[in-house]
Amino acid sequence: MSTARIIDGKLIAEGLREDVAAAVARMSRDHGVTPGLAVVLVGDNPASEVYVRNKDRQTRAAGMTSIEMKLPATTSERELLALVHELNRREDVDGILVQLPLPPHIDSGRVIEAIDPAKDVDGFHPINAGRLATGQPALVPCTPLGCIILAKSVQPDLTGLDAVVIGRSNIVGKPVARLLLGENCTVTVAHSKSRALPEIAARADLLIAAIGQPEFVRADWIKPGAIVIDVGINRVPGEGGKHRLVGDVHFEDARHVAGAITPVPGGVGPMTIACLLRNTLTAAAARRGIALAL
Ligand code: NAD
To answer: What is the SS3 assignment for 125?
Structure first.
C-alpha cells in the first residue's frame, strides 16, 4: 500500500518564521523600523489566552515588538472601539489583532470594521476581503495563506488543478477559495448544503477540508495521489480520559490514498501564527513604502 508524503507544517512554519525574522532584522538595519503587533484580548477565554501567549512569544522571537492588551470581560463595545482607534493612530503599531471570539455583548463585525485596513493583519476587514476577491494586493487571512503555502510546498505551481474546498466560512473556506483562484485552480466550494459531497471531493487534485467535524472526510472520498490539506482542529475523547486532537479528515485511512497530506496536529495549525508574523511585516513595509523581499 502506498503512503502519502506527510506535509510537515511545523517545519515549514519554522522556516517562514526564520525568513520573517531575517527580513525584520534587515528592516531594522536599513530603515530603523521595528514592526509592532498589538494583540487585544477581551475576557478570559482559556483557549484564547493560550493563542495570545503563543503569538506574543513568536512575535518577540521574530524581532518584532509585541504589544499585548488584556481587557476585562466587562469591557464595553465603546471602550474596545476607542482602544482600536488609538491603536490605529499609534505610529509604532503596524498590525492590530483583536482575538475572537469576543464576549456576546460586543459586535465583532463592528470591531473588525473599526481596524485600519492597512493594519488588519488578520485580513478580516471587508476592505481586505474585497481586495482579495477582486485580485488586488491585500492583507490575507492567516490560516488560508498557510494552506496555500503548504500546498505549494508539494507542488509549487498549482495552475490548472481541480481544487475542492469543503467549508465556506469567512475565516477559512471563502478566502482559501479566492486564493486558489489566484493560483489558477478550478475551484469548487462545497458546504453543509452541498449534495453528493463524496463525489465532489473525489474530483479534487487538491482537497482542503475546513469543516469542524472530526474525521469527516473518508479515504474513499479522496482521489488517489491528491494533495490533502486538513484545516480542522477537533478535540475528541482519547485514552485514559484525556482528549486528543484530530482533523476533519480521517488521517490514518486517507494517508494510504492521498499523494500528500497534512497531519493534525502539526500541519496547518503552526502556519497560522507564522503567517500572522508575515502579514505584520508586510503591513509594516507597505505603510512605510519599504520594498520587501520575502
Ligand atoms: P465554521 O464553523 O465557521 O465553518 C464550517 C464550514 O463547514 C461551514 O461553512 C459549513 O458549511 C461547513 N460544514 C459544516 N458541516 C458540514 C457538513 N456536514 N458537510 C459539509 N460542510 C459542512 O468553521 P471555520 O472557522 O471555517 O473552521 C473550520 C475548522 O477549521 C474548525 O475545525 C476549526 O477549528 C479549524 N480552524 C483551524 C485553524 C488553524 O489555525 N489551523 C484556524 C481556523 C479554523
So the answer is: coil
**Atom number in ligand 1 closest to CA 210:** 28
Segment 127-166, tens digit of pLDDT: 999 999 999 999 999 999 999 999 999 999 999 999 999 9
Q: What is the pTM of this model?
A: 0.97
Query: Positive or negative, the Cα torsion across 271, 277, 280, 282?
Result: negative
Which is nearest to 144 in space by CA: 117, 166, 121, 177?
A: 177
Nearest Cα residue to 16 out of 285, 231, 276: 276
Segment holding 266, helix H or strand E:
none
Of 58, 119, 120, 122, the active-site residue reads 122
141-270: CATH topology:
Rossmann fold (3.40.50)
- To the query of whether residue 155 is one of the catalytic residues in this protein, the response is no
Please tell me if the CB atom of residue 192 comes closer than 6 angstroms to any atom of ligand 1: yes
pLDDT in tens, 31-80: 999 999 999 999 999 999 999 999 999 999 999 999 999 999 999 999 99
Q: Which residues contact 225 (CB under 8 A, 6 or more apart)?
A: 205, 258, 259
CATH 3.40.50.10860 fits 32-117, yes or no: yes
**In the chain, where are the structural domains located?**
32-117, 141-270
Query: What DSSP string runs through 86-114?
Result: HHHH-TT--EEEEPSSPPTTS-HHHHHHH
Q: Do domains 32-117 and 141-270 have the same CATH topology?
A: yes
